[in-house]
């Protein structure tokens, strides 16, 4: 048996691929175009492992996807491939429209052509799992209940609008053509291999480098954090037992204000790797211009996952953030490797002289 994973060299896709092959002998065909966020170093531990087949290519290349599906005959496709950073979507939305919307369309249509011609048993068992985000639901008021699966779509950034559009395509390919799809909406992930343009890894690497820790606006925006390996276990569970055509919200019930996240990381580093001058890393915090259209609060109601599929996260926020900070301390070579010229250009374009 085989599955096709797209975007499997990115943050969540590489964690998913590693966890999958740690628990199963089922081959992973990993299709990734290796954008700035795709990194084969995340998968170094799979070198020489015949169960992992890496293909450098684009989900928008329908001919390539069709050929891969025909050659490997996967029983499922798990679609992680996307542009994922909100700030980049504000600077340059077109890549998001192209990869997240047009790319998902091409992938869906190639998968439909493959699925349609499958024999009855593998056709019935086939699944297309689309990995989406809580950001499609928009922003919550301070005391509003957490997002359930039936919350209306109200995306506010080019990124979240592109993800919402791709979700609609996935839904339509099920209702119109019968493609057996599953869609997941997860909250903010953190953990190993997280690209240091996102808040948690950026704060860890900037702190250690003696740089500014940029907090947008008043730092009181709330995100709901989930350790990446818990997201991976949830996706495996949905793939295994999710009801075709359904959507599932995935989260860890860990709402935190951004400033609290930054302070927590500083406290951990103060004890694990104290600054040479004995001062706290909190001295490096700087409040900077807010993100345009910044969503104030996200919160996921993950009770359907628990009730219907018996899934629960294994990590608390405390245990997950401890592991994450320790991982970055232990993997300085990985960090140095991703801080290429392109990374430095992004930091300069986005933060200017503030970091
Ligand atoms: P990432 O940016 O780290 O990785 C994305 C990967 O997709 C990269 O390896 C990139 O090369 C690849 N890719 C992009 N466009 C492609 C294309 N057209 N064809 C083939 N490969 C392509 O992103 P991530 O944080 O790992 O997120 C993965 C998925 O999970 C995304 O769909 C994202 O919307 C979703 N998601 C992310 C989070 C989060 O907190 N990071 C939370 C919920 C959902
Ligand atoms: O909610 C799920 C989403 O979480 C995913 O769909 C996205 O792919 C993922 O990037 C993430 O989006 P966010 O915008 O929430 O993540 P980010 O790490 O960019 O920012 C987290 C919060 O921290 C957000 O409120 C903005 C703030 N922030 C971020 C950066 C990079 C800062 O205050 N300073 C920063 O320098």
Short synopsis of the structure:
It is built from 13 helices and twelve strands. With 355 residues, it is α/β, with parallel strands linked by helices. The termini are far apart.
Produce the secondary structure layout.
Layout: E1 2-6, H1 11-23, E2 27-32, E3 52-56, H2 62-72, E4 76-79, H3 86-91, H4 94-116, H5 120-125, E5 127-133, H6 158-177, E6 181-186, E7 188-190, H7 199-208, E8 213-216, E9 222-227, H8 228-241, E10 247-250, E11 255-257, H9 258-272, E12 285-288, H10 303-309, H11 317-330, H12 332-338, H13 341-351
Parallel strand pairs: 1-2, 1-4, 2-3, 4-5, 5-6, 6-10, 7-9, 8-12
Antiparallel strand pairs: 9-11
The structure holds nicotinamide-adenine-dinucleotide and 2'deoxy-thymidine-5'-diphospho-alpha-D-glucose.
2'deoxy-thymidine-5'-diphospho-alpha-D-glucose (DAU) is lined by residues 84-86, 133-135, 187-188, 198-199, 202, 214-216, 221, 223, 258, 291, 298.
């Amino acid at each position: 048996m085989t599955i096709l994973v797209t975007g499997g060299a990115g943050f969540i896709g590489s964690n998913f691929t590693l966890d999958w092959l740690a628990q199963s002998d089922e081959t992973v065909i990993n299709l990734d175009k290796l954008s700035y966020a795709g990194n084969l170093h995340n998968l170094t531990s799979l070198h020489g492992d015949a169960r992992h087949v890496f293909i450098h290519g684009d989900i928008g290349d329908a001919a390539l996807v069709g050929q891969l599906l025909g050659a490997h005959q996967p029983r499922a496709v798990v679609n992680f491939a996307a542009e994922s950073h909100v700030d980049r979507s504000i600077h340059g939305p077109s890549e998001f429209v192209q990869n997240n919307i047009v790319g998902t369309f091409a992938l869906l249509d190639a998968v439909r052509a493959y699925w349609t011609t499958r024999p009855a048993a593998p056709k019935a068992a086939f699944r297309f799992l689309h990995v989406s985000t809580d950001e499609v639901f928009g922003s919550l008021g301070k005391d509003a209940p957490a997002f359930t699966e039936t919350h209306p779509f109200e995306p506010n950034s080019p990124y979240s609008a592109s993800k919402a559009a791709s979700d609609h395509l996935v839904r339509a390919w099920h209702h119109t053509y019968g493609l057996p799809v599953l869609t997941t909406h997860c909250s903010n992930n953190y953990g190993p291999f997280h690209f240091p343009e996102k808040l948690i890894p950026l704060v860890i690497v900037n702190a250690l480098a003696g740089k500014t820790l940029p907090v947008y606006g008043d730092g009181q925006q709330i995100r709901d954090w989930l350790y990446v390996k818990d997201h991976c276990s949830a996706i495996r569970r949905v793939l295994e037992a999710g009801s075709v055509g359904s959507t599932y919200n995935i989260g860890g019930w860990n709402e935190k204000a951004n400033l609290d996240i930054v302070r927590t990381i500083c406290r951990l580093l103060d004890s694990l790797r104290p600054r040479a001058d004995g001062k706290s890393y909190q001295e490096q915090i700087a409040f900077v211009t807010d993100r345009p259209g910044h969503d104030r609060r996200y919160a996921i109601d993950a009770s359907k996952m628990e009730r219907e599929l018996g899934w629960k996260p294994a990590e608390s926020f405390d245990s997950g953030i401890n592991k994450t900070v320790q991982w970055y301390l232990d993997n300085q070579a990985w960090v140095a490797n991703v801080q290429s010229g392109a990374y430095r250009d992004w930091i300069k374009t986005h933060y200017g002289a503030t970091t």
